[in-house]
Specification:
The complex is a heterodimer of chains A (164) and B (297). Chain A has 164 residues and is an alpha+beta fold. Chain A folds into two domains: 10-85, Roll (Ubiquitin-like (UB roll)), CATH 3.10.20; 92-163, [2Fe-2S]-binding domain (DNA polymerase, domain 1, Orthogonal Bundle), CATH 1.10.150. Chain A has helices spanning 31-38, 94-101, 111-124, 130-137, 148-163, and strands at 2-4, 10-16, 19-25, 57-60, 63-66, 79-81. Chain A has a five-stranded mixed sheet, with helices on both faces. In chain A, strand 4 (57-60) and strand 5 (63-66) form a beta hairpin. The radius of gyration of chain A is 16 Å and the shape is elongated. The termini of chain A are far apart. Chain B has 297 residues and is α+β, with helices and mostly antiparallel strands. The N and C termini of chain B lie far apart (45 Å). Chain B is globular. A five-stranded antiparallel sheet of chain B has the order 4-5-10-6-7. A four-stranded antiparallel sheet of chain B has the order 11-12-13-14. Chain B folds into three domains: 7-56, Uridine Diphospho-n-acetylenolpyruvylglucosamine Reductase, domain 2 (2-Layer Sandwich); 58-173, Uridine Diphospho-n-acetylenolpyruvylglucosamine Reductase, domain 3; 180-289, Enolase-like, domain 1 (2-Layer Sandwich). The chains are: A alpha+beta (164), B alpha+beta (297). The A-B interface holds A 1-7, 10, 26-28, 30, 33, 49-51, 54, 57, 63-66, 68-71, 73-74, 117, 120-121, 134-136, 138-139 and B 1-12, 16, 34-35, 38-39, 41-43, 51, 53, 55-56, 79, 99, 102-106, 108-109, 189-191. Strand 1 (2-4) of chain A pairs antiparallel with strand 1 (7-10) of chain B. The complex binds flavin-adenine dinucleotide (FAD) and FE2/S2 (inorganic) cluster (FES) (2 copies). Flavin-adenine dinucleotide (FAD) binds at residues 29-37, 39, 74, 101-102, 106, 110-111, 113-115, 117-118, 120, 123-124, 161, 166-167, 191, 193 of chain B.
Chain lengths: 164, 297
């Protein structure tokens, strides 16, 4: 059993984007704050902190989840991918290029979360319909683009994947 | 928006968990998917003394079909339920309901047990389990109880479960389930909580006469409710437009919704009628299709 009293810090070891991090945090530390403030990975954005906006979405053991609705201690020993992990070896992820080409971002605040959800989505859907893309995107708020460019970008990458 | 400090425990067995619940008494709180609890903590609508994290209890994350009973572990993720071929085959009502819950990203963590115990009056899982006549298995260090979901809801966000107890399993007898089914709901935006939702199960004989069924409505009272009177009107009859209208009317008249920021009382009453009718019609059509040997839509 893992146990920690109020204000007592626990050592959390996690692998993020392939790199091992070990930080001491209180149990109440949200995973989103852990990533940004303890690990310095500020690509993960924080908007609403109650699960609605999707800006903080990261992948935990492959699944796209809200990092504002998890405590860092709960991620102990997990494999996490954040937006920084999408272009690890210097080249951009196809979704990143497609968002840029299709005007799928303006201010970019929502983009990291959308990228993480879309990456999981494309692994699970070989030939998605527009409706399926929109349903997945319902978990993300974008106040700039009107979503059209984002849907196009995801559809574009899906098509490229299929044609390959 | 940061949660207040709490004492944290992450047990690795059910036995340890139940003992902790007993030791913490009124001040202990389980955390499962955290998709309802953490927003409450983040906004400091509540603060907790002891948080007991059950995510280490892998043994409670299962979906099994045993002797005509579909068994779902308390920690089963909503996303697993949604993707399960077994569930789609034996209780398709659930497969139809789950995609309405929040978003993929919240269903990846949110659990079936957490949703049932949280008991939001419009939540999809409580409503579906009520329609499916499921039973909740509730355990404490001292005893194990079986509570029919029909008796489980007390009032808004309150269920028949003590602070020292936890929900470990949900059981649905699937052999006798009617073949026609439908889950429909209305919400303002995709992924929002429903304003009104309805679930219907129906069986018909060869000439389309309704022989059995259950109808449940959510969002029209403090707890999801069974619309028995509306169902009684349908039994022994073939579905006509007039009969459908009557059933919808009776269902709506028997509800007592409150108006709030999201919808007025009148609007909810209207929705209750419209969505009851939609659920009945869809379940009826599917039931006929099953009889005709057709594939399900
Ligand atoms: C953006 C967003 C949209 C949402 N939309 C919907 C929606 O449309 N429909 C809907 O139904 N829900 C919705 N939800 C809530 C849903 O996602 C939650 O998963 C669900 O209500 C609670 O399940 P959980 O596993 O997350 O439980 P938690 O948040 O961990 O716990 C909820 C409560 O249940 C108790 N509990 C949990 N597990 C057990 C157990 N095994 N035994 C006893 N007590 C237990 C906890 O102590 C707590 O009181 C939404 C959430 C978010 C963030
Ligand atoms: S910050 Fe997590 S969903 Fe908005
Ligand atoms: S690009 Fe600005 S919020 Fe989406």
């Amino acid at each position: 059993m893992i146990q920690a009293a109020k204000h007592e810090k626990v050592l959390v070891r996690v692998r993020i984007n392939g790199k091992l991090y070990a930080e001491e945090v209180e149990p109440r530390r949200l995973l989103s704050d852990f990533l940004r403030e303890d690990c310095g990975l500020t690509g993960t954005h924080v908007g609403c902190e109650h699960g609605v906006c999707g800006a903080c979405t990261v992948r935990v053991n492959g699944a796209a989840v809200r990092s504002c609705l998890m405590f860092a201690v709960q991620a102990a020993d997990a494999e996490i991918t954040t937006v920084e992990g999408l272009s690890l070896h210097g080249s951009r992820h196809p979704l990143q290029d497609a968002l840029s080409e299709c005007h799928g971002l303006q201010c970019g605040f929502c983009t990291p979360g959308i990228l993480m959800s879309a990456a999981e989505f494309l692994e699970e859907h070989q030939d998605p319909t527009t409706e399926q893309i929109e349903e997945m995107l319902s978990g993300h708020l974008c106040r700039c683009t009107g979503y059209k460019g984002i849907v196009e970008a995801i559809a574009k990458v899906a098509k490229e994947q299929k044609d390959r | 928006m940061k949660p207040a400090s709490f004492n944290y425990y992450r047990p690795s067995t059910l036995e340890e968990t139940l003992q902790l619940l007993l030791d913490c008494g009124d001040e202990g709180k389980l955390i499962a998917g955290g998709q309802s609890l953490i927003p409450i903590l983040n906004m400091r609508l509540s603060s907790l003394e002891h948080v007991i994290d059950i995510n280490g209890l892998r043994e409670l994350d299962f979906i099994r079909l045993e002797e005509g009973i579909l068994k779902i572990g308390g920690l089963c993720r909503q996303r697993s339920l949604e993707k399960s071929p077994t569930v789609k085959e034996v209780a398709p009502l659930l497969s139809e309901a789950v995609p309405f819950i929040g978003h993929v990203q919240t269903r990846n963590r949110g659990t079936v047990g957490g949703s049932l115990v949280h008991a939001d009056p419009t939540a999809e899982i409580p409503l579906s389990l009520l329609a499916l006549d499921a039973t909740a298995i509730i355990q404490s260090a001292e005893e194990t109880r079986e509570v029919p979901v029909q008796d489980f809801f007390i009032t808004y966000l309150t269920t028949d479960i003590a602070p020292t107890e936890m929900l470990t399993e949900i059981q649905i007898p699937v052999d006798t389930l009617p073949k026609g089914y439908a889950f429909v709901e209305f919400s303002r935006r995709h992924g929002d909580f429903a304003l009104v939702a309805a679930a219907c199960l129906l069986d018909t004989d060869e000439d389309g006469t309704i022989t059995a069924g259950r109808l449940a409505i959510g969002g029209v009272d403090a707890v999801p409710m069974i619309a028995q009177e509306a169902m009684d009107v349908l039994l022994g009859e073939k579905l006509t437009d007039a009969l459908l209208e009557e059933a919808g009317q009776i269902a709506a008249e028997n509800t007592d919704p409150e108006g709030d920021l999201h919808a007025s009382r009148e609007y909810r009453l209207h929705l209750a009628k419209v969505f009851t009718k939609r659920a009945i019609r869809k379940a009826y059509e599917r039931s006929l299709q099953k009889l005709g040997g057709g594939t399900q839509p």
